[in-house]
Input
Amino acid sequence: MDSTDDKFKEECGVFGIYGHADAAAMTTLGLHSLQHRGQEAAGIVTFDGSIFHAERHIGLIGDTFTKQSVIERLPGQYAIGHNRYSTTGGEGMRNVQPFFADFAGGGFAVAHNGNLTNAGTIREQLQHRGAIFQSTSDTEVILHLIAMSEEARLVAKLTDAVKQLEGAFSLVALSGKKMIGCRDALGVRPLVLGDVDGSYVLASETCALDIIGARFVRDIEPGEMVVVTENGIESHFPLEKKPSRFCVFEYVYFARPDSTVQGENVYAVRKKIGEELARESTIEADLVVPVPDSGTPAAIGFAQEANLPFELGIIRNHYVGRTFIAPSDNIRHMGVKLKHNANRKLIEGKRVILVDDSIVRGTTSQKIVAMVRDAGAKEVHMRIASPPTVSGCYYGVDTPQKQKLLASRMSTQEMADFIKVDSLSFLTIDGLYRAAGEAARDNDMPQFCDACFTGEYPTSLTDQEGIDITGADNVRPISMLSGGR
Output
């Protein structure tokens, strides 16, 4: 995670299309709509009926794949693609997906959203058996497991591989005859099925279907593997059936507001989150101001429920590049103003409620509050549209070590003092569940993965066994072996 960007980062987006004349162009558009899930690099692999073609580039889709020459180098009616967000130790072209391998039965490409919590352990076992790895990504483990499987057919080999995996994975894969999609048994990460012009589409979110005019068919179910061929689509359930533990933070922050995930419109859920937050922790104030852009839907819901004016008291600059180089400490400390500026005319002399989606390190919140106070706010109250973030994620999200999470080492009042607000309140875990369509959290069988809020991890963390995951400096970063990074 970039220390200057005090937000969690989703790790990747995947897309696939089978049997379309403009497969590469459609995949480019799909990845463009999934750009929020990964901005570091992207790749596309196509198959033209006899040969696989690949393009992988560092940078945004709009900067790298929209040139006609690139699309022309990706012929074929079958394609899969991947957006990637890298972290410490994971940068470089060798980790850009989709990954491709030539097996005895033909070529095979795979792209992965999520994180395998036993990838390091499997990797070491495979290396002892003679496997040679070309990347630091856990996705490559899948290719080696397929290669070493004693099963005869490709789908059986992939089934054999995914049965050995722990953690979170939503996969799209392409062979010479098939496109395959698969989710882990808990369905932590999203994957949807669509149809456009009679061609099947797989994507991380429904917004990728919208951009190409595809029809949403359904979510791929937890533990399901779908196999698309020229004869149609088959559904298999190779993994043990378990209750879904979809990542609740997809609703809070990661997914695009216009997407529908698990049957819920993301924007509508975020508004409901704001309504729940207002019911739980409203306070006398003059106006509600979102911390843009991720806090906006919740702020709208909060304002409506609290019967307070909603105002854009902070304006975001959308044209700030990720690679701004600060020439001095004085300029570097102005970093928050590169992205945000207070709208003084609206907030001067007012009691302001700031609504944001989360607090991670607290450094950005501290600067936002100072900026609003400098603009003349009489009072500044902050309301957070999620519970306190107390634990890191091991399922495909770039998070700081636990000791760097503000809520893991401070009480709410101490956090309020740290960011210098008049009051601070977080949404309760039950409030979040209600907004996401549940009556409350079932503590015996939680309906979502909410480990970042509760510390309760739904799968084994094999690679972390014997390692202090509370934040000690000797913790091996999960990002070193991470899908989509």
Q: What stands out?
A: The first helix runs from residue 23 to 33. The chain has 18 helices and 25 strands.
